[in-house]
Amino acid sequence: MKTTMVTEELIVNMGPQHPSTHGVLYLELKLNGEIITDCRPHIGYLHRSIEKIAENRSLVQFVPFTDRLDYLASMNDNLGFCLAAEKLLQLEAPARAQYLRVIVAELNRIASHLLAISTFAQDLGAYATPLFFAMRDRQKVVQIFDELCGQRLTYNYIRIGGVAGDLTPDIARTINEFVLYFRKMINDYDDLLTHNIIFKVRSKGIGIISKEFALDYAVTGPSLRASGVKWDVRKDEPYLVYDKFDFDVPVGANGDAWDRYSVRIQEMRESLRIIEQAMGAIPEGDPVAKVNKVFRPSGEVYMRTESPRGDLGFYIVGTGDVFPYRLKIRTPSFSNIAALPALIKGLNVSDAVCALGSLDIVMGEIDR
Amino acid sequence: MFKLFVDIWQGIVSIFKGFVVTGRSMFRKPVTIQYPLQKAAMTQRFRGMADLRVEKCISCLQCVRICPTAALDLTSVTNPETKKKALESFCFNAELCCFCGLCQDVCPTKAIFLNALYEVAYYKRSDVTAIDLMAPDKYAHVGVLAAGKGKP
After folding, report:
1. Which of A66, A84, A146, A244 shows the smallest number of beta carbons within 10 Å?
2. Are B90 and B72 in contact (CB under 8 A)?
3. What is the pTM of this model?
C-alpha cells in the first residue's frame, strides 16, 4: 500500500468482549492508520473440551452436549451426531422420525439465518428494527420447538433411533400457519434490508471470497455458495429423506458480504418449501426413540450434514465399549473463521466488522 | 449523468419502502407481554426443575445411570424378606443439571419428571446443590410447584 504519510503501526485488540465479534472472539488487528494490515484471530475463550467429554459418555448421554456446540442451531447438531451414531450402529430411524427431523432441522435453519442476517444488519448500523423483526419471527419457531420438546435453546430432541416426542395435531397446525406467515414476512426483510440502498452500498464488494480461495480454505455453507460454488450436502450427498423433496440451492455471484446475506435470505425460502413438502408427506407411525438401550459401538464412521453454517461432520471411533474411543467434530465455523485474516486485510475496521458478521460464526462451535 | 439520477431515485424509493415496513408495525398488535406482571403459560412438555412422585419410585437407578452430568443421587435400602427396595434418599443437584430430560424419558414408572418451574432463585448455595426430592415442600419458597403444567 502506498501512503504519503508514515504512521506508526498500531495494534488494536478487538474483543473478546466486543459486541460485534459475535461471542468471545479476540482479534488482534495491526493497523496502519485505519487500514488493517494484519489480523490474528485468537480463539479458545469458550473451550469446554466437549470432544474429551464425549470419551466419558455413552452415545445417548452425549446428545445433550451437542446442543451446546452450535447453540443457535442445536437441532442440526443433534441431527449430525445422531446420524453419525446411527450409521455406526447400523440403525435406521422410523420414517415418521426422519420426516420430523427434516422439519425441525429446516425450522432451525430459518431461526438461525434470521439471527444471522439481523445481527449482520445490526453490525452495519441498522440498530433495532431488523433485529426486533427477526426476533419476533424467531420466537414463533422457538415456540414450536418449546411445544415439541420442552426447551427453547438446548433441545435434545433428536435421539439415536428416533426423536423425543411425537408431532401432535396442534403443533402441526402451528407449523403450517408459520410457513404461510413467514413466506409473506420474508418480503418484509427484502424491503427492509435486501434492496435498501444504504445496506447495499455498505456491504457490496466487502470481504470478497473468490471461488478458489473458498475451496482452498474449506469454507462451507452459505459463505461458499455465495462465491458461486453449488455445493450443498443435502443435495449432493443426500441424507434422511432430502432426496424426496424439490428444492434449489441458491448461489451468489461475487462472494461479497451482500451475496452471503442474500444467499441466506433465499435459503430461508427454500427451507419453507422443504417444510411444506415434508408436512404434506409425513407418514404415520411411532417416531419416539427408546433411551434406555445400551449401545456398544465398534468401528469408525464419518458422517456429515448441512448445518446452517456449513458442513458439519462427526467422526466417531468405537472399540466395543459403551464409551466411544474418540469423537472428532468438524465444525463449519472453525473453517470459515480461518478465512477471516486474508479476508479483512486492507479493509477499514468498520468493514472488518461487516466481513466478520457476514461469515456468521458461532463461538460455541469454534471452541467446542 | 442520467444513471446517477436513476440511482438516487431508486435509493430514495428503497428507503421509503423500508419506512413503509416499519410504519406498518405501528398498527400491529404488540407481540410482547409485560413479564413480571403477566406470565406466559409453560408448554405441556416444558422441562424445568426435576421433581419426584415418591410413591411411584422403585429405586431402579436408571435415571442416575443415564444422567449425563451426574446430577442425581439416590440411595435405597433393600428389605431382606421381600427383596423390595425402598427409597431412602433422593438428592438433586440443580447446579449440574442440564435439563435434557433423559431421566424422565428413561423412568419406567414415570416417577421422576421435570416440572414447570423456571424462575428459581435461592438464598443459599446448598439450596441448589442438594435439593431433597423426597421433601414435599422442596420448591415451596419459589412458588407453587408443578401445578401449572398438569403432566400425566
Report:
1. A244
2. yes
3. 0.89
